[in-house]
Records
---
Amino acid sequence: MYQPLADELRPKTLDEVVGQEEILGEGKMLRRMIESGKVPNLIFYGPSGTGKTTVANIIANATQRTLYKLNATTASTADIKEIVSQLDTLMAPNGILLYLDEIQSFNKRQQQSLLQYIENGKITLIASTTENPYFYIFNAILSRSTVFEFKPITPEAAMKAVCRAVDYMTAKTGLRVTQRSAMRYDRGGDNQYDCLSALMKSIRGSDPDAAIHYLARFLEVGDLPSCCRRILCSACEDIGLAYPMAIPIVKACVDAALQLGMPEARLPLADAVIFLATAPKSNSGYLAIARAMQDVQAGKIGVFPRELQNVHADSAGQEREQGYLYPHDYPNHWVKQQYLPDILKGTQYYEYGDNKIEQAAKHYWDEIKK
């Protein structure tokens, strides 16, 4: 019967597992638990392909327990009850080890239903998740489990597994092995948001090499919308008023990329990312709107100054002198008058950035406003 290569090469012992030395190395906690044969309920947290299922198989063999596997994305409470029915039978003489993958897909009620089965010790739960367990797993499950984080496999550690696979393939089939790697990318998950954060922070940090690297990751998986949105945001938030033309320039690059599609989209997007990373930076606009929003959300709004009100809003027969001074009627198109509500009079939200363009604007208005 055909067996996938990954299953044929799956480690059978802890010594064959690559990576995870922090929890599986000699004398480390998880290894000691497994070797003792007394394994508590466990939660394995980490990205796909880091050995969570493999270690669960090794634990089942080491404790001589019957291993049942369920995926929470498709399993139901009825599936768990079916497994429980095997307790104290010849099907599970030493108890049951339940491996529940993607436990975050179970809702709170489904997770609560597990408690009655794991508290008496006849069922040992090993739950795995690619999301942060402290956000997605019910507290009662967490309090009865030990959490272990599985870190991404380093290239050095992965090389051992790759060499083993190549040796196996060569001996068995003599075929060449593809040299293109499958990059980890969980759309909508931690990895996607980490990559988005790394892209924007690299642009903000004026590191074109790092920025172009993270762009390449998005291009490799074909996620144009996510990186385009982040690039546009960076043009407004991080370059901002230090180089206002960055916004229409980047918008043109993004439009070109979306019209071209892959693979040509990489060209305008690469231009945009390098342009932003090497452009002067200012977050003065970002800070100004953040301060203003804070006041508005706190209820500090006040009444519109009479000079700014719409005169047409006055009731018929109750029209009042507005007192608005039209700036274009005055020298340099400016005249002193109050624009903020009385409650906010004198408040300063915007502070000129220390870049050439904003300092030029500051000098211009300082001279006029004196």
Note: The two ends are 87 Å apart (CA to CA).
---
Amino acid sequence: MKHRLQFFAFLTLTVMLFATSCQKNETLSGPLPKVHIIATGGTIAGASTDIGYDAGKVSIETILQAVPELKQYAELDYEQFCNIGSQDMNDSIWLSLAKRVNQVLESGKYDAILITHGTDVMEETAFFLNLTIHDPKPVILVGAMRPADAEDADGPYNLLTAVKAIVRPEAVGREVMCCLGGKIYEAGAAFKNDTHSIDALSATSVDWYLPHNANTGFYTDNLEELPEVGIVYCYGSNSTVALEAFINAGYKGIVLAGVGDGNLNQETLDLAAQAVKNGVMIVRSSRIPFGGVYTEGGEVDDEKLGFIASGSLSPQKSRILLMLALTVTQDIDTIRSYFQNGVYR
């Protein structure tokens, strides 16, 4: 536990220093960096309605017109990749987005990529991209909690913060980043911790740090689909109906968002253990955002039952890592090593 707490302190410090550096040395010398913007929608592209707003309604061209200061820091071009609320992000879009980001970076024309994105699953998209992008140039996702036409819209400030961040030399070689509330977080640690606050992202402790490059992650550009992996949320007196449904549907992997230290009631434990014997990969995680789930010192014998402990990864990030891992191996020891140490080639 001690080493995990120490790494959290180090990560927090680097995030703070990185964010602070974005506020200083406002002008850059030499030619402006080239940044390609990939717009996917979200609240940052939202339009107000009678009851609230609709995400993914405003074009990236209109959004950028509201932030003319961006041109002081980078030479920008853009594309409207899609325009959806991030609740509608799916595996297919993730695969296409990762392929597009790799294409743009491989072209050698750009110094960084900025992706406008909804906040609901921003942490998931960032984590997926971090495991599937193979160029160390900066990639950052930018969101907002208020629609583009709101009087107090936060999107413009976040865009400006993000551009200032990714054009700085220290942005190279980091994990995929997220920007919200004028702050920068990296993919492994980022999570949404509030449903309404403009400062809705935060960071958890992490077991490993994996900047995207040619020696890390998974190659997915030629994949048409990903293995089916589901998440089962556990709670007091939970039934096994959801777990049974995933098993009967032929899912290749299941993440159990257990209670406390990834604990499971006996009925769920027994069914999950049987699923392992039938070839389903089971990851044991927790619905608790801090602390992580580990085989050492816990109540569940993962080695005996054939489970994989998620470590510091949340259920949603565990799903992404397991899904990608199953594209290359069925070996439980190899997949366990991914959860314990990251994915190195």
Note: The longest strand covers residues 75-84.
